Automatic annotation (TrEMBL):
Signal peptide: none annotated. Residues 86-95 have a biased composition (Basic residues). This is Uncharacterized protein. The lineage of its organism: Eukaryota, Metazoa, Spiralia, Lophotrochozoa, Mollusca. InterPro entries: Rab-GAP_TBC_sf, Rab_GAP_TBC_domain. Residues 84-108 are annotated as: Disordered.
Length: 216
């Protein structure tokens, strides 16, 4: 890991160790107990814990943060160099020429601008991540709404099919009823009235029937 990422790997592993053991470190009541914890307790981790720490450190990206800290360090160093106390303290050692002071001032301004640009870049990246998360949430809600819409459309289509089946069944029953009425009417015409009276069959009067289509 050191060969791949360089000295940044040391910072990553250190951050992961402190982060994973933060609760135990905070329980220490003195600096000596913290040092003792780092010397004795921390190295006693099992292999699974060490592998987890290495994996977390390998996935951690702190290059931007380290660059920002480096810029801030140089800015603070320049400010300390140009502070009145520091100038009076080293006045007898070295006298700064106007051109050297101007160059250092310009470098200080450039580094401050770089620090501001990096901070703005971090803010923009944070806003972009927030917008991406918001877009993901909206897409999930849209997919859920589309799924519900498809379910409703399928339900409506199924109801329409069932309705058409019922209408077709009603038409079939009406046709059968009409055919039966016609058959009864023909039979009544074939049988003489006297025979019907002798059989004592009380048949209702036959209405005039004409096939009609059901109201849709």
């Amino acid at each position: 890991m050191i060969f791949v990422q360089g000295i940044d790997a040391l910072f990553k592993v250190a951050l992961m160790l402190i982060g994973n053991h933060r609760a135990l470190i905070l329980q220490c009541d003195s600096f000596e107990s913290v040092v003792d914890f780092l010397k004795t307790t921390l190295p006693e981790m099992v292999q699974v814990q060490m592998e987890r720490i290495i994996n977390q450190a390998f996935e951690l990206d702190i290059s931007k943060e380290l660059q920002a800290y480096e810029v801030e360090y140089h800015v603070l160093s320049e400010e300390m160099t140009f502070s009145p106390h520091h100038s009076n303290r080293h006045h007898h050692v070295k006298n700064h020429s106007p051109s050297a002071g101007s160059d250092r001032s310009s470098r200080l301004v450039e580094r401050r601008r770089s620090s501001i640009d990096i901070e703005m870049m971090y803010r923009v990246e944070h806003q972009n991540r927030a917008l991406k998360n918001q877009n993901i949430d909206l897409l999930e809600k849209l997919q859920h709404a589309q799924s519900q819409q498809r379910s409703l459309e399928l339900s409506v289509h199924s109801n329409q099919i069932e309705q058409e089946k019922l209408k077709s069944h009603i038409r079939t029953l009406e046709l059968e009823r009409g055919a039966l009425l016609q058959a009864v009417a023909k039979l009544r015409k074939l049988i003489p009235r006297e025979a019907l009276q002798q059989l004592n069959l009380a048949l209702p009067p036959m209405p005039d029937w004409s096939p009609s289509s059901p109201a849709l």
